[in-house]
């Protein structure tokens, strides 16, 4: 009797678990077929100008078209990246952080794919809430990806690693832009501001972003940063050239780039002139060309040949591979990255989030006591990616022993399509 009961129990245990495994395998095959289907579809990249034109004379029907464009375009864009993740060597996929990113994207892909058509303004409101939630859930993607790929660096050739990261990060920006733009259009429409052709903003795009104002905002925020105890002020920042230059652009993106470049210059100058009583200024030159807007950030921070830098060419600072930039695998760097990756909010992506963090930060860490943020080494590679997203370019020139010049060039007309690779 006892034996029979044992057998029955075993059978009852085994059968459901086998069945479950078979079901889960079948589901996996089905999901992968869906993934292939979506990944075989063409992307529909847009330019700033198209985003502005479409959003400028907004009607209910256009708003719903915008919602359904986001709803159908996002799963295609995510499917391409999921396929890239699946193509990574197993040793990479098993690194800390990578699986988390993969899960987040699978989940977002499934949710977008199943999301029903948006037919009414009320349904659009729900759709906006849904996308807001996803934006929030994906806040930790960059540090997780960065951690996973830093740990994978020994197993991937630097070209492959950088190409992969570049695609992941550029298309992430692109997805967030589409979603945030749609949310901003929906908010403006619900406040009755949908069809004002003189608006300075259309969705998240500033139709005539004043470069000088953006630079001044960044200077102001950065110079309010806590200083190391040995100093009483930051370098002066001089603006020259054509500060009133305007271009259609996403303010948050330009702010991010200028903020990071200027932060590097101010920090390098402070470090280089640690024993001097006065600091040389940082110079920002703005130029308006026929097709481009240029911004040069010039400092006397000693250039890139400082002894603690482990890179050999300035552009290696954009690389995520330890072969090009040995710091990527240094233990303290990985430790900082791990702690950021494990917080829900991840990196403070916008300038204002970074500033808010300084103001409220816990002053017990060494970086905080020095008056600086823990440096993750992501500001420059991310600035490079933001610069190229709508066809711009970022270049670094080092005058070793003297200083660094960084050149940012952005197309002025907003006609370049998003630079997203399939
Ligand atoms: C991301 O932030 O990584 C995204 O892809 C956002 C999207 C799911 C709304």
UniProtKB/TrEMBL annotation:
<dbReference type="GO" id="GO:0010906">
    <property type="term" value="P:regulation of glucose metabolic process"/>
</dbReference>
<dbReference type="GO" id="GO:0005524">
    <property type="term" value="F:ATP binding"/>
</dbReference>
<keyword id="KW-0418">Kinase</keyword>
<keyword id="KW-0547">Nucleotide-binding</keyword>
<dbReference type="InterPro" id="IPR039028">
    <property type="entry name" value="BCKD/PDK"/>
</dbReference>
<feature type="domain" description="Histidine kinase/HSP90-like ATPase">
    <location>
        <begin position="249"/>
        <end position="414"/>
    </location>
</feature>
<dbReference type="Pfam" id="PF02518">
    <property type="entry name" value="HATPase_c"/>
</dbReference>
<keyword id="KW-0496">Mitochondrion</keyword>
<dbReference type="InterPro" id="IPR018955">
    <property type="entry name" value="BCDHK/PDK_N"/>
</dbReference>
<protein>
    <recommendedName>
        <fullName>Protein-serine/threonine kinase</fullName>
        <ecNumber>2.7.11.-</ecNumber>
    </recommendedName>
</protein>
<keyword id="KW-0808">Transferase</keyword>
<comment type="similarity">
    <text>Belongs to the PDK/BCKDK protein kinase family.</text>
</comment>
<keyword id="KW-0067">ATP-binding</keyword>
<dbReference type="Pfam" id="PF10436">
    <property type="entry name" value="BCDHK_Adom3"/>
</dbReference>
<dbReference type="GO" id="GO:0004740">
    <property type="term" value="F:pyruvate dehydrogenase (acetyl-transferring) kinase activity"/>
</dbReference>
<dbReference type="InterPro" id="IPR036890">
    <property type="entry name" value="HATPase_C_sf"/>
</dbReference>
<dbReference type="InterPro" id="IPR003594">
    <property type="entry name" value="HATPase_dom"/>
</dbReference>
<dbReference type="GO" id="GO:0005759">
    <property type="term" value="C:mitochondrial matrix"/>
</dbReference>
<dbReference type="InterPro" id="IPR036784">
    <property type="entry name" value="AK/P_DHK_N_sf"/>
</dbReference>
